[in-house]
Amino acid sequence: MPAVLLGAIYFVAGIACYGAVQLGHTAWFYLGMLICWWSAAKLVLHGIVATIRLLTARTHENLSVRRAIRDREKAIAEAGLAPLEYTTADRRQITREVRETLLAQ
Fold this sequence. Notes:
Shape: rod-shaped
Distance between the termini: 28 Å
Structural class: mainly alpha
């Protein structure tokens, strides 16, 4: 998100350069406007792509945690034991284990 906010600032700076040209300053401000808008576009696009990648990674991690819990429940059922109630701490521990496994790959 900070990159997107910085992109918005670059966009406003580009508008300021355009306004300076309209007020009668040198046409070289058009170059500043283009550079600012190009930088703004890059930063905003990077922010969008990074957000999509983060959501994809979190979804993959969530599915892996659910798969790990389902495998544990299946192993407990095969052993003939009573099913477990998973607390928040248990889910956090499983999530840590899954993250370590995913990072090791």
